[in-house]
Write a structure and sequence with these properties.
The chain is mainly α. Helices cover about 65% and strands about 0% of the residues. α1 (about 20-30) crosses α5 and α9 (about 155-165) crosses α10 (about 170-190). It is elongated, with a radius of gyration of 23 Å.
């Protein structure tokens, strides 16, 4: 299960305070960078990497993946979640090392507002359209026009937006945002390394069922296939 934090509660936007531990604040903030579409993309990347890694492990047993695409589509979420949760843990740790307790609380409070929820979706949409240099997440950093942002927010949401980015925390957030995004992208690409678990990767029910399926793997001969499946079956805890 992906460790995304869903929080319901009263938020005092003027003070930007939320009662939670720094760790909980950092985890929530990290979770806000992933929209459903992004999670699906990360899952596909993790599945692709996992199958490539699995193929490398099996090669020394003269077993090769035969139907790569089909196998990638069969990789269960419990495996790809390892990479996604690894990404979230890395981003969480970066926030804990970058912001102090009060800043984390204030950033989380802003993220809980309707203003952030709208801007997050708008930013993702415009980044996909090639508007990265005009991201709405840190407008003072990128020069995004306030009037354009205002069209997407209600009066109270726009005021929350102005209050946050006018605060000391908001200013610090804007200055570090570019580096933060860079780190997030880095963790997205390296978190798949969490799937590297050596020979233990082979000792799972998923691999066993895939080996037994027709057409997914290529063996040197039927006897070798039978013996290798028996070997994996005997090693599964």
């Amino acid at each position: 299960m992906i460790k995304l934090f869903l929080t319901v509660g009263f938020v005092c936007c003027a003070a930007f305070k939320v009662s939670a531990s720094p760790e909980d604040d950092a985890k929530y903030i990290a979770s806000q960078f992933l929209l459903e579409e992004q999670i699906l993309t990360m899952r596909k990347n993790a599945s692709r990497y996992y199958v490539e890694y699995l193929d490398g492990l099996l090669s020394k047993y003269t077993v090769r993946v035969k139907d790569t695409k089909r196998l990638e589509n069969l990789v269960p979420e419990e495996i790809t979640d390892i990479a996604i949760n690894g990404h979230l843990d890395e981003v969480t740790q970066w926030h804990l090392e970058t912001y102090d307790e009060q800043q984390l609380s204030e950033i989380r409070a802003f993220y809980l507002t309707g203003a952030w929820q709208k801007l997050k979706k708008l930013s993702h949409k415009e980044c996909k359209a090639g508007w990265v240099e005009k991201t709405v997440i840190a407008p003072q950093l990128r020069g995004y026009e306030e009037a354009r942002i205002q069209r997407h927010l209600s009066p109270s949401e726009f005021q929350n937006y102005l209050d946050f980015f006018g605060s000391e925390t908001g200013k610090a957030f804007g200055k570090l945002r570019e580096y933060e995004v860079t780190c997030s992208e880095q963790y997205t690409s390296t978190s798949v390394f969490e799937l590297r678990q050596g020979e233990e990767t082979l000792r799972t029910e998923f691999v066993l069922s895939a080996l037994k399926a027709k057409g997914l793997f290529q063996f040197s001969n039927p006897v070798a296939r039978k013996d290798f499946i028996a070997k994996i079956e005997s090693e599964i805890p």
